[in-house]
Amino acid sequence: MFTHQQHLEHLLQPDDYTSPAQYQRELQRLFYPAWHPLCTIHDLAQPGDFLTFDLLETPILLRNFGGQLRAFLNVCPHRHSRLTDEVRGRSAALRCQYHGWEFNHEGRTGKIPDAKAFRPWDRANSCLRRFRLETCGEVVFVNLSEEGPSLREWLGPLWERWHSSFGGAYRYATTWEADFACNWKVVLENSLESYHIPMVHPQTFKDMPPEEVAWHELERTFTTFKTIIPNDWVNRRQAHIVRLLGEQPTWEYWHYNRHPHLTVSTLDVNRLVMCVFPTGPTTCRYRSILFTLRGKKSGPLAWAAYRLLRPIVVYVAKKVFAEDGRLYPAVQRGLEASPHRGVIGTREERIYYFQRFVWEHTRDTRDISPTVTDGDHAA
Ligand code: FES
Ligand SMILES: [Fe+2]
Q: Could you give the C-alpha distances from 141 to 78, 131, 188, 223, in angstroms and in order?
């Protein structure tokens, strides 16, 4: 049951998917205040484990200091080198690769080669820049702004729905990412509608769910989609495995979008965190972190079911990811030549709420389209 009975205005125009000025506004107003899922605690399990990312034009380094996870700008205060160029690794100390300055868990300097050469000590220019880091379940989030809501506040009601899912009965399986030649909103909007299923996923999903079993929640900071998966042969086998693992199948599929860029999908057999990051006006990077059901049952049968299920879930998730990925460059090229204003169907109504969030944060005037009012939410 969709909330709207008539089509909606495509608030964002083709220029919003190509313009360097819009990209800069989105970085400043949408992305720097947001929380970003980057990895899991398993990626930083041992003291000294580290990962580096280029996140929103910002080089960052995550590291385990004796069990404490920290995020720093991956830039040395001495003469600006990246501390490390390795993507991941383990080291006894956080040491800059250029002249060997070392830093502790607070980002303060430790050992400095030939330290007397720096007398008097410039304390104001000696610390690494630190970023906020928090976890939701086993997923590690980073925020690049100094102030703002905690992760829990930022997620709002989604925190309760998610935090026990990333871990617990669901075990971390894998992370993958890909760069796409399209604006980040092309990827995000694709994930918000089931309308493309028959054309893009004819084997994996087959058909779009009928409106009677499609429910949307449409809120200012997030939207959700819920459906009931078909009672067919494949899904009955899947439900059997869920029971072998000691859980009760719900037959529900959920998809969430915390505006702007964070999405999570859930089935009885998995929890999938997907996040899309702009890397330029017309390029983006899409990262997925997948958990598969382990359940509470122990014993060889449950273990075998888990080991059977996990590669199948990973295979299907990556296949769907690739099927969608083939379309993104075509959508981008179309946007760059389009004379049209676009239109959003009732099945695609979540896109309107996503676009409204982007619009409100990146337009300097609040002359927002009157098509939908603030109180116009799904039941
Ligand atoms: S630039 Fe890092 S120690 Fe010199
Ligand atoms: Fe898709």
A: 28, 10, 19, 20
Q: What's the 3-state SS for 126-166?
A: CCCCEEEEEEECCEEEEECCCCCCCHHHHHCCHHHHHCCCC
Cβ–ligand 1 contact at 174 (below 6 Å): no
Kindly report the protein residue whose alpha carbon is nearest to atom 1 of ligand 1.
Answer: 79
Return the ligand number nearest the Cα of 83.
1
CATH code for the structural domain at 8-32+154-362: 3.90.380.10
36-138 — its CATH code?
2.102.10.10
- The response to whether residue 98 sits with its C-beta less than 6 Å from ligand 1 reads yes
Distance CA 143, CA 289 (A): 18
Helix (H, G, I), strand (E, B) or coil at 323: helix
pLDDT at 240 over 70: yes
Ligand nearest to the CA of 115: 1
Q: Residues 186-225: pLDDT tens digits?
A: 999 999 999 999 999 998 888 889 999 999 999 999 999 9
Locate CATH 3.90.380.10 in the chain: 8-32+154-362
